[in-house]
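hiii so um. not sure if this is the right channel but i have a protein structure encoded as tokens and i wanna go backwards to a sequence. like what aa goes where. can anyone help
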């Protein structure tokens, strides 16, 4: 299955493949001339898939070398990015040398930012190996790193030349990482695809069990949602902010707990529940909509609330979120399953959002 991200002269395909990395080299050769290439991966993914990646690229006429970055959200820092840029330059990088990001969202974000920075920009290929990166972070051109003030506050919009999502790589995911990806999948359903939400609602157990047909449909539908939104608003000047549904609360939780305590998709799931319940409390959607979202997030195995955390710190973290401007937050307000509207709401609404985190796990 091939989905096109329509950006004029910078359009690119998302290949969703029911198999492994065997066809990666051929897909790259269709988009880029053969020659040197740098594969950026982490020790965990590298041990599993670097050889397959290198073999596929070599068979297509590329000459790949492998560079590693640390694994995990805690490594998504300016320091890691800086070291990677120096490592890329040390390979003899040229402006035509593609950087191939092989891994999950952290690896893709760091490698993408490095590709945008080294030599003022070299070709980027995203090869996501987690569900979350396939349906979200590898698509759309957002790259970057975290800083103490917040998540993804240093980075660049930098589109890849292609995305290659080989579904067989999901079979080595641990269950928690798979569930994390489901947080972004169900978010896309709430945003723009009632059929995708129904798939999450009705086939949650199959998804958690990595049923091939269910997961493939989830990936394809999620990529279609994101591709359409990015095509309409590449740099988040308006519509693209709807993709941040669940992220006002979710990013605040990540920032206050410390990156890596909960996975990103887990925090998005908590935020999705809280922000939908907040919309219901305002009368923007029905209580039944909020109930369905809450029940589906629970069925997908995602938490509904974080560990104990300081509420005032959460409020402060949400206020520094990159969606905030002049005391207002660009917020996706749920109207019904498959429909949201973008609204600028006052920062004073944040405590009301946080109050909608289910109270069976109290925050300090």
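sure thing!! here u go:
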């Amino acid at each position: 299955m091939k989905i096109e991200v329509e950006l004029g002269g910078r359009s690119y395909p998302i290949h969703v493949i029911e198999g492994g990395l065997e066809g990666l080299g051929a897909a790259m050769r269709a988009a880029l001339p053969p020659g040197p290439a740098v594969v950026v991966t982490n020790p965990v993914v590298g041990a599993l898939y670097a050889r397959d990646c290198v073999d596929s690229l070599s068979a297509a006429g590329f000459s790949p070398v492998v560079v590693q970055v640390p694994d995990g959200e805690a490594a998504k820092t300016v320091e890691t990015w800086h070291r990677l840029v120096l490592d890329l330059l040390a390979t003899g990088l040229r402006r035509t040398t593609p950087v191939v990001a092989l891994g999950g969202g952290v690896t893709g974000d760091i490698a993408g930012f490095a590709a945008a920075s080294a030599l003022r920009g070299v070709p980027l290929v995203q090869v996501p190996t987690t569900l979350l990166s396939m349906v979200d972070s590898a698509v759309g051109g957002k790259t970057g790193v975290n800083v103490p003030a917040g998540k993804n506050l240093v980075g660049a919009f930098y589109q890849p030349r292609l995305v290659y999502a080989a579904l067989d790589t999901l079979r080595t995911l641990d269950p928690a990482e798979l569930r994390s990806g489901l947080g972004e999948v169900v978010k896309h359903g709430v945003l723009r695809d009632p059929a995708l939400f129904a798939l999450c609602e009705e086939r949650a157990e199959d998804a958690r069990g990595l049923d091939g047909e269910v997961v493939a449909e989830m990936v394809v539908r999620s990529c279609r949602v994101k591709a359409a939104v990015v095509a309409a608003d590449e740099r988040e000047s308006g519509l693209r902010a709807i993709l941040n549904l669940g992220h006002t609360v979710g990013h605040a939780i990540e920032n206050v707990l410390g990156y890596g305590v909960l996975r990103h998709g887990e925090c998005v799931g908590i935020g999705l529940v809280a922000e939908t319940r907040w919309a219901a409390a305002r009368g923007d959607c029905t209580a039944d909509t909020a109930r369905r979202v809450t029940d589906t997030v629970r069925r997908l195995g995602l938490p509904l609330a974080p560990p104990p955390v300081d509420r005032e710190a959460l409020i402060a973290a949400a206020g520094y979120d990159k969606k905030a401007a002049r005391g207002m937050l660009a917020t996706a307000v749920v109207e019904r399953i498959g429909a949201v509207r973008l609204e600028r709401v006052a920062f004073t609404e944040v405590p009301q959002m946080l109050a909608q985190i289910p109270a069976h796990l109290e925050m300090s």
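oh and The chain has two domains: 2-172, 175-205+231-355.
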